[in-house]
Design a protein that fits this description.
The protein has a domain at 5-78: OB fold (Dihydrolipoamide Acetyltransferase, E2P), CATH 2.40.50.140. It has helices at 104-109, 125-128, 132-146, and strands spanning 5-15, 18-28, 35-45, 56-61, 69-78. The radius of gyration is 42 Å and the shape is elongated. With 148 residues, it is α+β, with helices and mostly antiparallel strands.
C-alpha cells in the first residue's frame, strides 16, 4: 500500500509537539462543474517543535500516535515570516486633537437673530379666502342661470 503524503499550511502551533495543518483540495463539483475548494485540517506530530504558523509543510500518514494524531511532519517546504506587534508601548501613539474651546466672553457676545421666513410650500391666506365681492358675484351668476 502506498504511503499517503499531503502538502499543507500550518494554521496552529499552540500544542506541544503537535501542529494543525490545513490541506486544500480543489476539485470540480460533480453536477455544476465549478471548482470547489475543500479544506481538511490534520493534527500532525512535530517532534522538534520546528514548525511555526504560516509554514508550508509536507506531512505523511503513520500509525496512530494519539486519539486524533495520525500524521507526521516530513519536511518544511517554506517558512513564512509573520510580524507580530510587540508591546503596546512600542506601538506608535496617535494623538487625538483637543476640542477647541472659546472663551466665555466671546460665546456670550454672540447673539443669533431669528428671522421669520415664509414657507414656500405653505399657501398664502389671501389665496385661500375669497373676497366678499367674489362671493356675491358667484351668487348672482347662479341665480341668473336658474331663472331662464
Amino acid at each position: 500500500m502506498a504511503v499517503k503524503e499531503r502538502v499543507g499550511l500550518v494554521v496552529s502551533d499552540k500544542m506541544e509537539k503537535t501542529v494543525v495543518v490545513a490541506v486544500e483540495n480543489r476539485a470540480p463539483h460533480p453536477k455544476y462543474r465549478k471548482i470547489v475548494v475543500r479544506t481538511k485540517r490534520y493534527k500532525v506530530h512535530d517532534e522538534g517543535n520546528k514548525c511555526k504558523v504560516g509554514d508550508r509543510v509536507r506531512i505523511q500518514e503513520t500509525r496512530p500516535l494519539s486519539r486524533t494524531k495520525r500524521w507526521i511532519v516530513v519536511d518544511i517546504l517554506g517558512h513564512t515570516i509573520l510580524e507580530k506587534p510587540s508591546k503596546v508601548q512600542d506601538a506608535p501613539t496617535v494623538e487625538q486633537p483637543q476640542p477647541e474651546t472659546q472663551p466665555e466672553s466671546v460665546s456670550s457676545e454672540l447673539v443669533l437673530e431669528q428671522t421669520e421666513l415664509e414657507d414656500p410650500l405653505e399657501p398664502d391666506d389671501e389665496e385661500l379666502e375669497p373676497d366678499d365681492e367674489e362671493l356675491e358675484q358667484d351668487d348672482e351668476e347662479e341665480e341668473e342661470e336658474q331663472e331662464p
